[in-house]
Design a protein that fits this description.
mainly alpha, globular
């Protein structure tokens, strides 16, 4: 019970700090996805470079992108700062809870931020496009995908933040962010990449692909998509794999 109370207190403190930094957090999580949504969904559509209705396919992908990347960044960057000059991690390690739970708390908090950022994209998309042609019966599964996608993104962030030395974190993000964004099926349905088989196979290794496909399949079932059970299985597997790796790297850094 002491560990549970300590875990809840540490998580509550992080949530409280987010409330105090809400304007900067909103700017951080909304500028890039809103810009992409506007350019790909509105500007290119009005110029005739995309087909009518493309914005309906794009919006679930942008929601998925925000859930995954915000979770990843808000787990890895604070972790790098905590282990480098701020040394805030030392205070957390003194809390009466196992070291592994400190890592889990960082991952859970990052996932909460990612989920919040994903939900913000829904009203923004509706305001930008006027209406969304979603199958409301798929909303529960879409929420499940957002939860699993946020957790998997946070797990990847935990692994990156604990494994990469602070002096190399900028290089690491420059290398991995663009491939994650553009191989995650956020701007296109994965199932329609038949003519680009090599790229389709490459996208299949990205956990974000299964989040995008799960969201698109839940909200736009008429669009070709990966089977829902495969999406859930892939997201759970990614969360467990990177979660275990992240905790191991975190323990190694903490004990050092």
């Amino acid at each position: 019970m002491t560990s549970v109370r300590a875990f809840t207190a540490v998580l509550g403190r992080d949530v409280f700090v987010t409330g105090r930094e809400l304007p900067s957090f909103m700017a951080q999580v909304l500028v890039q996805p809103v810009a992409m949504l506007f350019i790909f969904g509105t500007v290119l559509g009005q110029l005739g470079y995309t087909q009518p209705g493309y914005e309906q396919i794009l919006l679930p992908g942008m929601i998925a992108l925000n859930a995954f990347l915000v979770s990843l960044q808000n787990t890895s960057f604070p972790l790098v700062l905590d282990f480098s000059f701020s040394r805030e991690i030392e205070d957390r390690l003194l809390a009466p809870l196992p070291i592994s739970l400190v890592a889990v708390e960082k991952m859970l908090f990052g996932a909460m931020r990612g989920l919040f950022a994903a939900l913000l994209m829904v009203p923004i998309g509706i305001l930008m496009f006027g209406t969304v042609a979603w199958d409301l019966a798929g909303l529960p599964f879409a929420v499940l995908c957002m939860l699993l996608g946020s957790l998997s993104g946070a797990a990847v962030g935990l692994t990156v933040g604990a494994a990469v030395p602070p002096r190399r974190i900028n290089i690491m993000f420059a290398v991995i962010l663009a491939p994650l964004m553009f191989t995650g099926a956020t701007q296109f349905p994965w199932a329609q990449l038949d003519q680009l088989r090599w790229f389709q196979v490459l996208c299949a290794f990205n956990p974000l692909t299964y989040l995008s496909e799960g969201m698109r399949g839940a909200l736009l079932p008429d669009v070709p998509h990966i089977a829902p059970w495969i999406c859930v299985l892939a997201l759970v597997a990614a969360t467990l794999l990177f979660g275990v790796l992240g905790v191991r790297f975190f323990l190694r850094r903490a004990l050092d």
